[in-house]
Amino acid sequence: MQHGTVKGPPLALTMGEPAGIGGEIAAKAWWAVRAAGPAFFLLGDPALVKDAPVALIEAPEQAASAFPHALPVLPLPLAAPAMPGLLDPANAPAVIASIEQAVGFALAGRAGGVVTNPIQKSVLTAAGFAHPGHTEFLGELAGTAQPPVMMLACPGLRVVPVTVHLSLRAALDRLTTDIIVEHGRIVAAALRRDFGIAQPRIAVAGLNPHAGEAGTMGDEDIRIVAPAVEALRASGIAARGPFPPDTMFTPRARATYDCVLGMYHDQVLIPIKTLDMDGGVNITLGLRIVRTSPDHGTALDIAGRGQADAGSLIAALRLAAEIADTRRKAACP
User: Fold this and answer.
1) Which residue has the higher pLDDT, 331 or 297?
2) Does residue 120 share a domain with residue 212?
């Protein structure tokens, strides 16, 4: 097999929250990439797509031929008509089914990867959804042996929080040396497998201001973080730190690593969203399938107004295709 550009199956795009901007940004993304790709199809109610021609399909295999002319949609009807900005728990089962079907297609090799539109977790929780978010649900569906890990990426920066959707107090209670090491190993493996980086460089953020300043601002960096860095280095991973978080994201610092491993959610999500809110992509590491998503929410406040920016979804589609291509090339003899 040649190691040039490898084209695989189309990407599966979930519909996300029907009352949000998923349908709008799906249409805008199709207009943006229809000529050069990557090809994708939407699993959802065709009525959500207002501003693009739609081609109804019955199987993922029909998406590629339809894509240059219309947005392929594999119909998944809603229980109630979607009203922009107005949440309806009756539609939660269809939202969940969209994710389940997309993952199923990817596991079967019928979709090159899964790109997920934003969901409204409160609505799904009210309908009995027992997961904190997409990442945990996808981990269950894909049957991973290790917990999935959330990475946020934009041109020039990749970040991974060790603790995610927890209060700051709960995050401090959960943080251990073993969890940091586990995340570091998953990140290093993903950088090699999905991004083609042969020798990944990981910068580990300290927990406290100035990384604790030799214990004068808290001893957690000495007791918890530094031993994790040492363990990662002992296993052959180029990890460094803990570094003072307030100086890790300057242009000069970003040139010295391939990914930042942060201790809690806002520590690393604030910098990346400040740098590139419209182009940031959420990637789930450690899955058997490729999964990306836009780095924003459902935007109920602007749903139905034509104001949504599809930049993050477009970036998520392109990055999913690149990761899938990297994996296929690595599998070539």
Assistant:
1) 297
2) no
